[in-house]
Amino acid sequence: MSIEVLNESGAEADETALSALAAHVLEKLRVHPLAELSIVLVDEDAMSELHEKWMGEPGPTDVLSFPMDELRPGHVSGGTEDAPPDPALLGDVVLCPTVAVRQAKKAGHSAEDELHLLCTHGILHLLGYDHAEPEEHKEMFGLQAELLASWRAARARPSS
After folding, report:
1. In the prediction, which pLDDT does 69 show?
2. Which residues of the chain fall below pLDDT 70?
3. Please, which residues bridge with residue 95 across strands?
4. Cα 120 to Cα 125: distance, rounded to the nearest angstrom
5. In sequence order, which residues have a C-beta less than 8 Å from that of residue 157 and are 6 or more positions away?
6. CA distance 144 to 75
7. pTM, whole model, 2 decimals?
């Protein structure tokens, strides 16, 4: 799994934890280990530009996802003995830490927890999950909660 985290936001963030979280999510969703993912943290001005350009909405948002290859959980095969799989570019998840801080305060949890939630949410969007319809919303947010709970449990276990 190739996961690159770029912090262009000027805000403090635990890039190592974001990378480990992303690896955890992709592993749990059985995305092929050759998949590549970029996580980019940007400031509000950069996020506002992206939000307006790609979503047609003004102002910054918390997370945007830009899928590249058509990957789906559990559907990216490992190839065959004769034909190993080609590496696949999953896409980019763009996070805005300052928006995350504001949302975390409203939600009553830490900014780190909010960034983890948003990162997971963005990865699910890259994999084709959506929440426009009630059933999609239930599935996506349920899976998001499951993945975050397993991530927190894995982090809480002492390493051997």
Report:
1. 61
2. 69-87, 159-160
3. 41, 63
4. 9
5. none
6. 19
7. 0.87
E strands, 2-160, are 2-7, 36-41, 63-67, 89-95
The pLDDT value recorded for residue 83 is 43
Q: pLDDT tens for residues 65-83?
A: 999 865 545 444 444 444 4
Distance CA 78, CA 123 (A): 20
Measuring CA to CA, which residue among 23, 44, 49 is closest to residue 35?
A: 23
Q: From CA 13, how far away is CA 95, in angstroms rounded?
A: 11
Report the distance separating Cα 100 and Cα 112, nearest Å: 8
Q: Which two tokens stand for residue 5?
A: 């985290």
- Please state, in angstroms and rounded to a whole number, the distance separating the CA atoms of residues 150 and 160: 18
pLDDT at residue 160, rounded to an integer: 54
Length of the chain: 160
The answer to whether the beta carbons of residues 1 and 98 sit under 8 Å apart is no
First vs last Cα of the chain: how many Å apart? 22
143: which 2 tokens?
């899976």
CA-based nearest residue to 70, from 95, 56, 97, 91: 91
The DSSP secondary-structure symbol of 3 reads E
